[in-house]
């Protein structure tokens, strides 16, 4: 309870730091040194928090602070999260990796609805993070991964992908091609002009959609699927399918008919409609048909 109260107070401090028009005449609640310490402690608390309710509150607090401070006043936020995600091969780090992914999603969400001209920080996030996220998502969506921890991490990656791509295709979305220290300008073409860069992500989405989720009574992996509709809707593996369908539905609506796509995305739309859409029609329909 003390941690929850502290997180709420931190969010209040972030919202009232004197940067908004309504508080322009008020002195800052915290000086820069105090805020730097608060940021560091918040990240560490979030990385180590196993309780979902507290973790979600800490993540929202980070989101509120990032609105004011990221990237200019919080330049080490993204490197800190990426360093944690890079430890995904260490099973003992599963909780911290998941929570780092949760935090990364909160940062991406800040720019989700921004205009193209205001999405520069999101493009940089994609360039730096997707080279880590792509191989991790490929592993988590593999046929031998069945744990709930894997599903929870994969769900966060899919939500990051959604926030990064639902309105525009950012530079470096392919993953491994944009992570070698190249600038946003050097990768300005992005998936819109090199549509094949997104094929590994399409493979991940398809793998999630076709993954069998047997009834618990069969004893097959992944085990212990809930029986009630409410519990199934909250089960991490079904959540992964939900986000995969949502991503593909948005891509179908934006790029399924090339004539209706924006001029700069027409090459991608042609690739999508000819090479990608046919692969997904069956899996998407079959997944939707499974809903009670």
Describe this structure in words.
This protein is 62% helix and 0% strand. The two termini are 38 Å apart. Residues 177-189 have low confidence and may be disordered. It contains twelve helices and no strands. By secondary structure, the chain is an all-alpha fold.
Shape: globular
What's the Cα radius of gyration?
20 Å
Largest sheet: none
- Distance between termini? 38 Å
Can you give the mean pLDDT?
A: 86
What share of the residues lie within helices?
Answer: 55-70%
Strand content: under 5%
Number of helices: 12
Number of strands: 0
Uncertain segments are 177-189
- SSE order: HHHHHHHHHHHH
Structural class: mainly alpha
Produce a short descriptive summary:
Helices cover 62% and strands 0% of the residues. The chain has helices at 2-15, 32-48, 52-69, 77-85, 94-110, 120-140, 148-165, 190-193, 199-210, 229-234, 236-255, 266-289.
Helix/strand layout:
Blueprint: H1 2-15, H2 32-48, H3 52-69, H4 77-85, H5 94-110, H6 120-140, H7 148-165, H8 190-193, H9 199-210, H10 229-234, H11 236-255, H12 266-289
Helix pairs in contact: 1-3, 2-3, 3-5, 4-5, 5-7, 6-7, 7-11, 9-11, 9-12, 11-12
